[in-house]
From TrEMBL:
<keyword id="KW-0645">Protease</keyword>
<keyword id="KW-0472">Membrane</keyword>
<dbReference type="GO" id="GO:0030288">
    <property type="term" value="C:outer membrane-bounded periplasmic space"/>
</dbReference>
<keyword id="KW-1133">Transmembrane helix</keyword>
<dbReference type="GO" id="GO:0006508">
    <property type="term" value="P:proteolysis"/>
</dbReference>
<keyword id="KW-0812">Transmembrane</keyword>
<dbReference type="Pfam" id="PF13180">
    <property type="entry name" value="PDZ_2"/>
</dbReference>
<protein>
    <submittedName>
        <fullName>S41 family peptidase</fullName>
    </submittedName>
</protein>
<dbReference type="GO" id="GO:0004175">
    <property type="term" value="F:endopeptidase activity"/>
</dbReference>
<keyword id="KW-0720">Serine protease</keyword>
<keyword id="KW-0378">Hydrolase</keyword>
<dbReference type="GO" id="GO:0007165">
    <property type="term" value="P:signal transduction"/>
</dbReference>
<dbReference type="Pfam" id="PF03572">
    <property type="entry name" value="Peptidase_S41"/>
</dbReference>
<feature type="domain" description="PDZ">
    <location>
        <begin position="87"/>
        <end position="157"/>
    </location>
</feature>
<feature type="transmembrane region" description="Helical">
    <location>
        <begin position="6"/>
        <end position="26"/>
    </location>
</feature>
<dbReference type="InterPro" id="IPR029045">
    <property type="entry name" value="ClpP/crotonase-like_dom_sf"/>
</dbReference>
<dbReference type="InterPro" id="IPR004447">
    <property type="entry name" value="Peptidase_S41A"/>
</dbReference>
């Protein structure tokens, strides 16, 4: 939009802020809340004047979006607006599935190339394999087109139970192959891995708390119990949270009947308490919860519930510090708002919400403040307030006011978690190059079992040099990782494992050299000396 319209937009935003700020009172019924009044009429009339009378055409939808964002920006950092063009993606991500054909793909040399089919999904059942190049979908050519990944996904997705005919080129086949694939509900995994670290210690990693998370978690936990797990490493690092109810269900697996999990309080002082039930299957096992500075919200609910009930051991670094609860509300045009409606408190009564009075920029830059202070390397640098000191039933001191402080501190691994490697991972360069390594010699891995690969396979120095050339020539970057070659090898191996073997292989490779995971293994050995 032309910058000359910004004064107009800001004026509408102020009007909208006055209107909505004066009417968001949840003591009112929905009828009372949305009935007409002079303030609402004023805002509606202004929008109508701009629509019909203003000298030039103006996109009033964008004015409304700016108004809503401006209002929420001044409330708290976690009240957010979700535009209608993003709501479906957000909903699918938190629902835990979407309708599709069940592949992960990479646009390789202008062609959709299958990285891996989803296990037991429609594409796997139809016969597609990693490395297949999809050149048409229902006769519509996808080869050589200047399409974004979003465009390609739209062409492959469709209504549930509808069919798509794919024409595929496969290395070693002289002619194109044809597959008919039925679109189905495809799970979006929120549990990344579940396997045994030792004979008695299981490991489960959760990446978010979606609708499907508890079922995924319970399935993996049951498998590990059958394999002899008496202790569990529950990895919640980098987990931004999700549904509060799902966090309660997972905490319930470890807590005895009637133990308080958390309580919430809204602005009217109404308190709702959540208690554990008898259904937990791991109440007698020891749990180690792995957290870091990006473990937030529902992750902190689980960690706080266990810590305050003297259950298990919290391992890692101080968590994010989000103690606010949001509720999603539809706005009537396909968009929605997630509005903070209450605060939650751990069983001892502490709020772990960080202060946000200095504004959102300062709030979201907290990681860099922690890095600069030295807190991520030295637990003595963690700032605590005596006024926010609480005591667990067994006499352990815990603190509120800014995240969960772990029982056992593990510093940031500055080599595996450095900014250069993080940049390469975020941009997808490591996984994309791993795919090209497979394309050059996919058959060389055919007889290599998952276990043999994880235990014995080594990425060569030549492959690392080729990766450097790939970055400089194909991706036209100036990134140099001379001092991080061993770390690059480990991430390349993990990416290869994920593309070859699927579920959990990536984490299993990285965990071989993970400081926090190794700390948990050592702690668990001490627990079972008897």
């Amino acid at each position: 939009m032309n910058k000359k319209y910004w004064p107009l937009i800001i004026g509408a935003a102020i009007a909208g802020g006055i209107f909505i700020g004066g009417n968001l009172d949840f003591n009112d019924s929905s009828d009372r809340l949305f009935t007409s009044n002079s303030k609402k009429d004023k805002l509606n009339r202004l929008i109508d004047y701009i629509d019909h009378e203003y000298v030039e055409d103006v996109n009033t939808d964008s004015i409304v979006d700016v108004t809503v964002n401006g209002i929420l920006h001044n409330l708290d950092p976690h009240s957010v607006y979700i535009p209608k063009d993003e709501l479906q993606r957000v909903t699918e991500n938190m629902k835990g599935d979407f309708v599709g054909i069940g592949i992960s793909f990479y646009t390789y040399k202008d062609t959709i190339t299958v990285i891996r089919t989803i296990e037991k999904g429609p594409s796997e059942r139809a016969g597609l394999k990693g490395g297949d190049r999809i050149i048409t979908a229902n006769g519509d050519s996808l080869f050589g087109r200047d399409l974004t990944d979003g465009d390609l996904i739209k062409r492959l997705k469709g209504p549930r139970d509808s069919k798509v005919v794919l024409e595929v080129i496969r290395r070693g086949e002289e002619q194109a192959l044809t597959f008919e694939v039925k679109r189905e509900d495809i799970p979006i995994r929120s549990v990344d891995a579940g396997y045994m670290l030792t004979e008695t210690l299981g490991y489960i990693k959760i990446n978010r708390f979606a609708e499907s998370t508890y079922k995924e978690f319970k399935r993996e936990l049951t498998k590990l119990e059958k394999k002899g797990a008496r202790a569990l490493a529950l990895d919640l690092r980098e987990n931004p949270g999700g549904f509060l109810g799902i966090a309660e269900q997972i905490a319930d697996e470890f807590l005895e009947d009637d133990k308080l999990i958390l309580f919430t309080k809204n602005k009217r002082g109404d308190i709702e308490k959540s208690f554990a039930t008898k259904r937990g299957s791991f109440e007698n096992g020891h749990v180690y919860v792995l957290i870091d500075e990006n473990s937030a919200s529902a992750s902190e609910i689980v960690a706080g519930a266990l810590q305050d009930n003297d259950k298990g051991t919290i391992v890692g670094r101080r968590s994010y510090g989000k103690g606010l609860v949001q509720r999603e509300m539809q706005l009537g045009d396909g968009s929605a708002v997630r509005l903070t409606v209450s605060r939650y408190y751990t069983p001892t009564g502490r709020s772990i919400q960080r202060a946000y009075e200095k504004g959102n920029s300062d709030y979201f830059d907290d990681y860099y403040a922690r890095l600069d202070s030295g807190e991520l390397l030295d637990p003595e640098k963690i700032e605590v307030a005596d006024s926010l000191k609480f005591t667990t039933p067994n006499g352990k001191i815990v603190y509120g006011g800014g995240g969960i402080i772990p029982d056992v501190f593990v510093p940031l691994d500055e080599r595996m978690q450095n900014e250069t490697v993080a940049f390469l991972r975020r941009r997808g360069y490591i996984s994309n190059f791993a795919f090209e390594m497979l394309e050059n010699d996919r058959s060389g891995f055919n007889d290599l079992s998952r276990e043999a690969f994880i235990l014995n396979y080594q990425v060569s120095d030549d492959a690392v040099e080729e990766f450097q050339d790939y970055l400089n020539i194909k991706r036209k970057t100036t990134v140099v990782f001379v001092t991080y070659k061993e770390e690059i090898k480990q991430y390349l191996k993990a990416a290869l494992a994920e593309q070859l073997y699927g579920f959990g292989a990536y984490e299993e490779v990285l965990n071989q050299k993970d400081m926090m995971v190794n700390e948990v293994i050592n702690l668990s050995k001490g627990s079972f000396q008897d």
